[in-house]
Amino acid sequence: MNERKTLWERIKAYKLDTQVIIGIILTIIVIISVVVYLQPSFRKNEVLVNIVLVLFTSLLVSIITIFVDVITAYNKDKREKYIESLREFGIGNLYLNKEALLKELLCNCREHLWISGYRLIMTYNLRDEIYKAIKRGAVFRAIICPPWTDAFKMVYGSNEKVIDNYIKIFHLIHKACVETGKPDTANCVVFVNKPIFNDTYRIDQQLITGPYMHNKDERYNRLMAKDFFSYDIIRDSKLNKLMNDEYETLFSEAEAKLDWEKFEEVYADIINTDYRESEKIEHFISALTQFSKEEK
């Protein structure tokens, strides 16, 4: 653990020690001038009194200016050091509104689109942007922890209704593929029975991530992904490699994937029938294909 530096050590680290030393010397000169000025014998010489007063005033202004500059530079350098440390770690910027950020980035997405999640509430809100990105040529990948798994129930319980989000998002993806003549197999949706700790998205070369948070909102439901704080990762950083590898590892350890041909039949059935959520889950599971050992 790093030892806490003294104020002087931090001043030297920010290369402000010269200004501080000059300020201290000028302060000492001012104090001496005041002491001399207060001597009765000295005040008899009016010329010297005026000279000392001018010198005192000038030095006082200089001292104030120097210390204001030092404090300003100190605070600025401290902020810059903090920002530099973040960038060295791999964090580009911090964001509080993930949905707005992703919506902005999706407007120009043309190559890669990765998502991850549990309920896909925010992804559902972004479905039109995702549809347009796929029509522009983006390849879609998703890692989902679904409601029938133990991992999902550990986080959200057993009463969440999410299948409608799933089928409407995937139907739009299928529609984009049909309209562009691109095979559905170019896009891959996989399902895991593992807690997803980081809410990670890749939009072309931009990696956006942040921790899943278990806070409760005012309605006693878990926070949605749009409410998580997020950060974008600098492309050539070690953090980028770590987050990218985590996504790839989860993807490779998935238990099942969406079968697009089966899905469209299931989609039509669910949309046109008044099923309970448990029945929707059963029908949706029938559109999945388990990974074989060879595929893993």
Number of strands: 9
Count of alpha and pi helical runs: 11
Q: Which bin fits the share of residues in helices?
A: 40-55%
Silhouette:
rod-shaped
Helix and strand content put the structural class at alpha+beta
CATH superfamily placement of the largest domain: Endonuclease Chain A
Oligomer classification? single chain
The CATH architecture of the largest domain comes to 2-Layer Sandwich
- CATH class value of the largest domain: Alpha Beta
Q: Roughly how many Å apart are the termini? A: 41 Å
Computed CA radius of gyration, to the nearest angstrom: 31 Å
By CATH, the topology of the largest domain is: Endonuclease, Chain A
Q: Secondary-structure element order, as H and E? A: HHHEHEHHEHHEEEEHEHHE
| Domain module tally | 2
Q: How is the biggest beta sheet arranged?
A: 9 strands, mixed
Query: Looking across the biggest beta sheet, what order are the strands in?
Result: 1-7-6-5-2-3-4-8-9
Taking pLDDT < 50 over at least 5 consecutive residues as the criterion, the unreliable ranges are: none
pLDDT averaged residue by residue? 81
- SS strand fraction: 5-15%
Report what the structure shows.
There is one protein chain. The chain is 53% helix and 13% strand. The protein is rod-shaped and about 105 Å long. The chain has two domains: 7-89; 94-290, Endonuclease Chain A (Endonuclease, Chain A). With 296 residues, it is α+β, with helices and mostly antiparallel strands. It has helices at residues 7-13, 17-37, 46-89, 98-106, 121-125, 127-135, 150-156, 163-180, 238-252, 260-271, 277-285, and strands at residues 91-95, 112-117, 139-144, 188-191, 201-203, 206-209, 230-233, 256-258, 288-290. The model has no long low-confidence stretch (mean pLDDT 81). It contains eleven helices and nine strands. It has a nine-stranded mixed sheet, with helices on both faces.
